[in-house]
Design goal:
With 98 residues, this protein is α+β, with helices and mostly antiparallel strands. The chain contains three helices and four strands, in the order αβαββαβ. A two-stranded antiparallel sheet has the order 1-4. It has a two-stranded antiparallel sheet with strand order 2-3. The longest helix is centred in the middle third of the chain and has 10 residues. The structure holds iron/sulfur cluster.
Length: 98
């Protein structure tokens, strides 16, 4: 059985080792992120086209750079919402291989 179809397409991942549960991502993109009453961050992994900007903004705002957008058009990732004054786009580290 191939899991390739589950891995393809625009998506985000959150590195749990980096995430400090500040919930800034929820404030930036509440349609994608939710910090639950149990203290766990839940998020929508697969992105629709309408989510690209919000996902990129959340990744850019995360203070620990725990959010990694993948497969966005042109693989520009968080550059999608880069402000003109952001001369050096930042990227979160890829998730660790298990
Ligand atoms: S903004 Fe970053 S550190 Fe804060 S909850 Fe979201 S992913 Fe975690």
């Amino acid at each position: 059985m191939s899991f390739e179809r589950f891995r393809s397409g625009p998506r985000i991942s959150v590195d749990n080792d980096r995430c400090e549960l500040y919930a800034i991502c929820q404030a930036e993109a509440p349609e994608l992120f939710e910090l639950g009453p149990d203290g766990r961050l839940r998020y929508r992994r697969r992105l629709a086209e309408r989510d690209y900007q919000a996902a990129a903004a959340a990744a850019r705002c995360c203070p620990t750079q725990a959010i990694s957008p993948r497969g966005l058009p042109g693989d520009r990732g968080i550059e999608l919402t880069g402000k003109p004054e952001d001369s050096a786009p930042r990227r979160a580290e890829p998730p660790r291989q298990r």
